[in-house]
């Protein structure tokens, strides 16, 4: 019942708030290990989270874990989506990113693995070769938190407001935005927690 009302009871990424403004925060995120999968969203009838089940199977969220050990890996939050050209490096916890691949757009979804995994080689090896395990270093973002449903229209508006605020205050944006969704689809919209993040120097 708590999940319906927006309770977040899973591990979330560790970060330090460097500065808190009226309209955004500057955060420094700790290094992490991620599991990611890149896929063609048209194979999932337009569902941008089509890679979710591939990663959920890897960690054992919906049955026996599809990895080199029988160990289930705890789910974390948020799920993050990113829209960017392929040439820009991707970073985030649990991530879906949209990349242009010639004629079609590809999506990449990432789960940040629990902090007990400090190196990529410490995480169970995926059985599914589409799942890639890699490390992400320390990174810094401008972040805005908001509730409701993170529709494309709402996200575009939030990102533009964040970009304006960051540039106004002298920060240099160095990549594409991320959208972080902390709640499952059955959480009531009024109780959802979302964030947009822009990487900065």
Automatic annotation (TrEMBL):
<dbReference type="Pfam" id="PF04832">
    <property type="entry name" value="SOUL"/>
</dbReference>
<protein>
    <recommendedName>
        <fullName>SOUL heme-binding protein</fullName>
    </recommendedName>
</protein>
<dbReference type="InterPro" id="IPR006917">
    <property type="entry name" value="SOUL_heme-bd"/>
</dbReference>
<dbReference type="InterPro" id="IPR011256">
    <property type="entry name" value="Reg_factor_effector_dom_sf"/>
</dbReference>
<comment type="similarity">
    <text>Belongs to the HEBP family.</text>
</comment>
